[in-house]
Design a protein that fits this description.
Elements lengths: L5 E5 L3 H12 L3 E6 L22 E4 L5 H11 L3 H8 L1 E2 L4 E4 L1 H13 L4 E5 L13 E3 L7 H11 L4 E7 L2 E3 L9 E2 L11 E6 L1 H13 L20 H6 L26 E7 L6 E4 L8 H8 L10 E3 L2 E8 L1 H4 L12 E3 L9 H19 L12 H11 L24 H19 L15
Parallel strand pairs: 1-2, 1-7, 2-6, 7-16
Antiparallel strand pairs: 3-5, 4-5, 8-15, 9-13, 9-14, 10-11, 11-12, 12-13
Helix pairs in contact: 1-10, 2-10, 2-12
Amino acid sequence: MTMEKKIVVVGGGLAGCEAAWQAARRGVRVELYEMKPHRFSPAHQSESLAELVCSNSLRSNAIDSAVGLLKEEMRRLGSLLMRVADETAVPAGKALAVDRERFAASVTGQVAGCRLITVHRQELTTIPDPGPHPVILATGPLTSEGLSRSLVALTGGDNLAFYDAIAPIVSAESLDMDIIYRKSRWDDEGPGDYLNCPMTREEYERFIGLLATAETVPLKPFEQPKYFEGCLPIEVMCARGEQTLRFGPMKPVGLADPRTGETPYAVVQLRAENREGTMYNLVGFQTKLTYPEQKRVFRTIPGLERAEFVRLGSIHRNTFICAPRLLGPTLELRSRPGLFLAGQLAGVEGYVESTAMGLLAGINAALLALGQQPVVPPPATAHGALITHLTRSDPAHFQPSNVNFGLFPPLEKRLRKRERGPYRARQALAQLDQWRQAVEVPAAHGSPAG
């Protein structure tokens, strides 16, 4: 007897719903498990699937932005959630924002009404065995304690984090290298692995004065102000005393400026975020400052006056795996064939990015159920750039990220700033259109609705 072509999806959020829809589009039956309404996470209130718990904005809709490009790729790949977002959009300038109740209600109705998707309103406390059928785990940043314990047992506690401690990332081409110098601490040989922003005493005192009075993001009701000593917010360290940062992440010892031979009063170090060296992380600068305040305060650091931030810092509750150690490029767990991870749990940030990873996981789990090989999008696409981040980042410093052009392969030619986004969009969509032929839904399947 032929085994039924089926997958199991755990989690009815954005990633889980998109994954289920993509599998159903390919004629694969889906068992979707969602613990609401029997149990709610601290952030959820509605019984609907695909609940937007924070903002109703999906950010820029401009195709020459990284997140706008990601949306367009998803539309071309038949995304349910992008179609519903477009149908339930509210005025938001160049951004795509939705009526969150209409959005969730529409997704819930279409997923629950799909002839190939069975929605189980039931909490699972252990990860299903992917032996008979592929499994997608898409339980989100507030994964329940039971499933978290199951994931720890499967991956090892060192590979699972429960809080983001994210420092800002800046674009390399926006740095002032007339001020910044390259040097590793006490390393006299070679150019060094770190970029260093030197500060005089006056510049340091001005910086900590601004930092001490800057506005921070209030904790959510389910968060507690408990931080690891090894990754304290920069403003918390600053509050412990005016010299604390000089003996911590801004310690200048061993970082004499090779151009002058003098040691600065304080130093902000930048570490390469990717192999191509197109992005740099502000070492030790995880923060709860609001986004506008981060830009205002951190641009007073010498060499960062015109910094372009490709990611801003944050510290918040967020369950995610160390993807570079655990995930393959198809989003399949290396140690457990047939088990896929999607959404924020896989190591991305943001509504759109989480949905996109659900889309890819759904496609690949369906292909596996059909006896076909899973696929990987081209690296020059927005989907491919996120996969590269998840699988090729340094595991020792891995943190979730939104999509941004710093994750893409370096441009093969120099372009003006205003030309880069449109050029990347043209390049990405051309490659996506060619690649999607490999994942196109057979005409016999059509829409899974009905």
